[in-house]
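FYI - complex with 6-O-phosphono-beta-D-glucopyranose, inputs then prediction.
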Amino acid sequence: MTHTFPKNFLWGASISAHQTEGAYQADGKGLSVQDTRPRDNHDITDFTVAVDHYHRYKEDIRLLSELGLNIFRFSIAWTRIFPNGRGEINQAGIDHYNDIINECLKYNIQPYITLNHFDLPQALEDEGGWSVRSTVDAFKEYAQLLFETYGDRVKNWLTINEPNIMLLVDQKILGKSIPVQEKYQQFHHLMMAEKYAFKLCHELVSEGKIGPVPNISLVYPASSKPLDNQAALYFNSVRNWAYLDFSCFGRYNAVFKDYLNQKNVTIEFAEDDEKMMKSHFPDFVAMNFYTTVTVEKPTKKDGMSDGISDQQSEDIMEWGFYKGYTNPNLQKNEFNWTIDPDGLKTTLQTLYDRYHLPIIITENGLGARDELTADGKIHDAYRINYLEQHLTKCAEAIEAGVELIGYSPWSAIDLVSVHEGISKRYGFIYVDRDEQNEKELARYKKDSFYWYQQLIETNEMPS
Ligand code: BG6
């Protein structure tokens, strides 16, 4: 049987600025929290050079056009536009993204731009980051400038990448742990910033569309024990629905509210927040999906822990509410992430059932240690297999009535992983460098490149 995707299905691939661009101080760029993040492992590379996409974007976009993409998801580095987060504008940064956008359009590739992907300006972080209200105001100023500058050509926007994962695995992504009261005040500010982005995009970009971009995956109970099911209810709310209920319904999820009460967290609202929350909504939901999570109810002997250390189930621990559980029914990749294509289908169905909005997958993919052969090939059959399994489930979800409008996996090109360096590769395009040696940063097409190219060309996937 062959799965045929809808005629207008959007085929894409995704990256973020700090994981690809490098040139971290070039042409007036300010420092972001990713540039200053303390590193616990110096055997892996930082983001200073990454894969030098900043200088090689023309070559990269030409390759993406050869791949056949009709959309390209990338993020803008806030610190190239406003080196200090707000105030003085850096024209070189504005020009750079104008060039990137025009280069995409030259090949008929529509940009899907993420306003911010984990790289808050350090200058704002120094003033308190997302814990203080003034960062929401700075974000408004930044979003407004982007919509005014690029909105004539860019019609599709994504707000803030994975605020849920950013707060859940703060130590790994931001390099510091955030106390629980502050964490959920940050939640409120991030979500309000997003509401302003919805409003501004709709006001400033003619025919503009915008969506949130959380990492969503269903949470399974470890067993049919009623208390395991309750643990799954809480973690589903804290990890998934709190964010999307705010974006799409304009309200705090009720289970999440109970969780906050039990943690003695009080959220400070500004005067207009209640009204803003209920007045501005997304046009679609963009969703990143890698794996599902399984939890159980902790027992006393599990001890106490304040946070969650990874998006992988086995590390999740929140005293009294849920504890990560290694799902014995799932295989793992070489970086210990479970693989669950059926979980993607269920997640898509659940999401669509809940919000009735079009969905686009803006991340999904396999991190692996690819090998470049002497004759310049990368035989990544394992990645093709992963993508094929997940896309089969996307096709099934569409057949089951889900309005899935596109698929933009992680990643277009090899990039530096959030905390596992360049050895963990996701791209369709291989970049020849390793952790210690940048070499020539030459680009090579992987076997998955040719596989995806054919899929895009035919719109069909044999199953
Ligand atoms: C997502 C992020 O959570 O996961 C990406 O949006 C990240 O920035 C991706 O690269 C894969 O995670 P990792 O840790 O393998 O880089």
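Confidence is low (pLDDT under 50) at residues 304-314. The pocket of 6-O-phosphono-beta-D-glucopyranose is lined by residues 16, 19, 161-162, 165, 215, 288, 363, 367, 410, 417-420, 424 (CB under 6 Å).
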